[in-house]
């Protein structure tokens, strides 16, 4: 397939699966439940709260744990926060490769909402999960109160994002060494995040290793291929929608490069001439097509929402309110 994903996503997928640490415990104040749906067992984190329900979906390759820092803050703002790990990732079970589609993920979301016996909900999605909440909103408009897109562009393929990604001049250094949690964490900090948080730590621990991890890795490409083939029709989004666009920099996108080095100069030229203009067009296209859309620029990289949990939760709560 053509490379239909941003560099940060491809680098994250290149990370090895860790050897699991049975002694580690997630400190985030949530309960855990599982929902049987469409042939899989979906992992759901629930932080409680007595207000309106907010359901959070992680991006590709990530788990519900990436919201470990954001969700408690939404609860403090008066909401009931729940996050779902998509099929095939983390503690959700994996089905056969034919079931890794946007439509299947949308059906999974509906099944979890049915299990919660809820009415209209607010949906929050990061990265490629934007396609899932867009399709869900088009199919089930009466069940959606509001939508929040965290650097999540359902129109990525339609805007030829794959062609933009194919021109990336610099690739991250490959992972080397033992697949321990500490070594993988250090590689992720150096090549992708530039920092680390409790939520990212929990997400790392949630990924299965060994034979099961390898089996799931072999299935991942099916979901990416389906996402690349199906752009979403944003004009079908009737609910109020907020897009939070990450406004990044060369240093944030390439944290392993040293400013002034030849590779940094090549990356900086590409970033300024190609990458940033593309994402500005994506933000503008979303604003043009979504009937009741609002855009907020958020300085930082693609995963900044998990580093800046307080700011993210504050903007989401203000929009939902």
What can be said about this structure in brief?
The protein is an alpha/beta fold.
Model description:
By secondary structure, the protein is α/β, with parallel strands linked by helices. Helix content is 42%, strand content 17%. The chain is built from 12 helices and 8 strands. The chain has helices at residues 7-14, 70-76, 102-116, 129-139, 161-165, 181-193, 198-206, 210-229, 250-253, 262-289, 304-307, 309-320; strands at 31-37, 40-48, 53-57, 80-85, 121-126, 144-150, 241-247, 293-299. It is globular and about 55 Å long. The termini are far apart.
Defining key terms:
321 residues, alpha/beta, 8 strands
Q: What is the overall shape?
A: globular
Helical residues, percent: 40-55%
What does the main sheet amount to? 8 strands, mixed
Q: Terminal Cα separation, in Å?
A: 42 Å
Number of helices: 12
Class per helix and strand makeup: alpha/beta
Calculate the mean pLDDT score and round it: 89
The parts where pLDDT drops under 50 for at least 5 residues are none
Strand order of the largest sheet: 1-2-4-3-5-6-7-8
* β-strand number: 8
Helices and strands, in N-to-C order?
HEEEHEHEHEHHHHEHHEHH
Give the radius of gyration: 18 Å
The fraction of residues assigned to DSSP E strands is 15-25%
